[in-house]
Amino acid sequence: MKRREVMTLLGGAAAAWPLAARAQQPPLPVIGFLSTRSPDDTKYLAAAFHKGLAETGFVEGRNVGIESSWGFGQYDRLPAMAAEFARRQVALIVATGGEPAAFAAKAATSTIPIVFVIGGDPVRQGLAASLSRPGGNMTGITLLTNQLEPKRLGLLRQWFPQAPIFGFLVDPSFPPSEGQLKDAQAAARAIDLQLRVLPAAFETIAREGIAPILVAASPFFDTRRIKLVELAALHRVPAMYHFREFAEAGGLVSYGIDPADALRQVGVYAGRVLKGAKPAELPVMQASKFEFVMNMKTARALALDVPLGLSAAADEVIE
Question: What global pTM score does this model have?
Answer without folding.
Answer: 0.86
